[in-house]
Amino acid sequence: MSANVTIADVAERAGVSQASVSRVLNGKASVDPEIVKQVRRAVAELGYTPSLAARSLVRGRNQTVAMVVPDLGNPLFQGILKGVSVAAAADGYRVLVADTDEHVDDEEATALEARQRCDAVVLCAPRLPDDRLRALVARLEPVVVVNRRLDGAAVPQVGIDYARGVRELVDHLVGLEHRRIAVLAGPAQSASNAERLRGIAEAEAADPGLDIRVLPCGSRLDDGFAAADAVEAERADGATAVIAYNDLVALGLLAALRQRGVDVPGDLSVAGFDDIPLAAFGTPPLTTLSVPRAELGAQVWSRLRGLIGGASDEHELLFQPRLEARASTAARS
Amino acid sequence: MSANVTIADVAERAGVSQASVSRVLNGKASVDPEIVKQVRRAVAELGYTPSLAARSLVRGRNQTVAMVVPDLGNPLFQGILKGVSVAAAADGYRVLVADTDEHVDDEEATALEARQRCDAVVLCAPRLPDDRLRALVARLEPVVVVNRRLDGAAVPQVGIDYARGVRELVDHLVGLEHRRIAVLAGPAQSASNAERLRGIAEAEAADPGLDIRVLPCGSRLDDGFAAADAVEAERADGATAVIAYNDLVALGLLAALRQRGVDVPGDLSVAGFDDIPLAAFGTPPLTTLSVPRAELGAQVWSRLRGLIGGASDEHELLFQPRLEARASTAARS
DNA sequence: TCCTGCCGAGAAAGCGATTTCTCGCAACTG
DNA sequence: CAGTTGCGAGAAATCGCTTTCTCGGCAGGA
């Protein structure tokens, strides 16, 4: 079994020194072809596998990165996780997940702890306030921040241009004659929520005819479901369209509206965000903003790999969401 | 920074030996309270954090387990992952995910590679044929297999009693006067699919009045969506109910049927499996079989921990799914 | 022909913990 | 009072690699 075979055994069997075995295995320097052959044979015969623990100790590297997310149940994060994971795997890296379950105060501890086990970490949509986050990020060092703008930190960031996306969505709705729009806000500490709201504010400022009301909500299915009452109140008050924090919220809302017999998009247009796989299969199919999750994940890995390799990088990369107009939004009737 | 502080530094600062520092940190043996105080102070002052790499080398343990899944996009696996992850975290363990993306032939390599980095692995719904799986499992050793029955392997298994669940579902439909039922099968290599089919066969055998047709399908949203034609053909042929491989498939099917103007449950009853969060929010809310994902995950961890601790365990644990009758199934009209 | 330089391979020194071994000292027994 | 016995703490070995150091041999230049 590979378990107990050490490099010493291989060396002995091949009749060479451990150093040579190591050289062969790592392709360092030039080694006598004969020795190479001997070593390879010995390795094969013994079924030798280098101990990763020993290797990490001496190299100070793990070949593992951590991804810290606020909620693994969110399809957006799942998509990014998968993207990072696939890209990293191609370079022999694995990823370890840590779910903070939206507990802001666990974020630091969790991230720090994860960092101990890994060569780098990707912080997904951290909920921490700016100053604490900046401090944290400094201690995490090889780190990339996803979906959270953080000024004044020498850290690569990759995110989604929610502000612009939401403006696009508003434009879409305005094009459909909607003027009174309700917005279902996400978690208060979510930076991407703030970005969305910023976009909303910009849109409102640009078009005085608009009347947008922001309602507190959340990020999950049941949040959307529970928001139905508030939405109905807005509708009674003249709102004809709703922009939900994300697709999950939108789908939850859709379900609740259906129960109440509200027709979407006849009585009310509803739009989401993220274009999760289910969005296209909703009732009705959901108008939403599509974000390239997998590609984003790949980009994150590419940055991360650079940092691990010692590069320094503090660029910010913003993906532009693309409007996916489907049946849940329609011209005001 | 914790990065460069070693136990030697702490020892020096505290004026004691490394051994004592180690003892204090691990709470082994009894140490002079005075020394304990010194060490703690030195640790705090230096901001010392033990190197996990060094620790793993000497202990031969990682405090990390791997979870290998065929598709992270599946909410069932996400739920189990979360369950395992939370339970493991409570014991200071982290989990590393490896997604084989339904590539059967990568399963062995992926699992083996993951095992190298971890103290144990949980194999989720492996698609490997029995003999290869048995061989693999032997090499993985501390391992628990989820959602796959594997006879003749000394390995704990935890799963879901799909056969019984599906019989329950059939009973439910029969109670609603359905006799001709279409079944959308999952991935061919999926063991849980085989279990479901076994349940179907049993139900059919028990009730000669039943006429159940199995259609090939898949495990994802679009599989269900794409199955609509086949389902319609069955319906034209007299089928009045459909049992989908899982909720994702059911939801995809629902979407396609809606496009076609088929009324569910009026024209056709549809049931799923797993009770994913979205099931209750479908149109109509989906009748499904609920499985306790988080609890299952916790059980998996509990088994795993035992194994890591050296216990031997080859019990099989089967969770009984619970019928969640909702609006997508109704009496045949 | 002799010296310098280079190259390849083995010996040995870490990497940073844990754990066994050893030893001194105090307490306990007969 | 002498001879264990026990206990606490430091020294050193160990885990399994990588990498530097060292040295012998061989080729090229003077």
Automatic annotation (TrEMBL), chains A, B:
HTH lacI-type domain residues are: 5-59
Q: Which domain of life is it from?
A: Bacteria
Q: What is the protein name stated in its UniProt record?
A: LacI family DNA-binding transcriptional regulator
Q: What is the lineage of its organism?
A: Bacteria, Bacillati, Actinomycetota, Actinomycetes, Micrococcales
The scientific name of the source species is Agromyces seonyuensis
Q: Name one Pfam family in it.
A: Peripla_BP_3
InterPro entries named among the record's database cross-references: Cro/C1-type_HTH, HTH_LacI, LacI/GalR-like_sensor, Lambda_DNA-bd_dom_sf, Peripla_BP_I
Supply the alphabetized keyword list: DNA-binding, Repressor, Transcription, Transcription regulation
Q: Which residues form the HTH cro/C1-type domain?
A: 2-42
GO MF: DNA-binding transcription factor activity; transcription cis-regulatory region binding
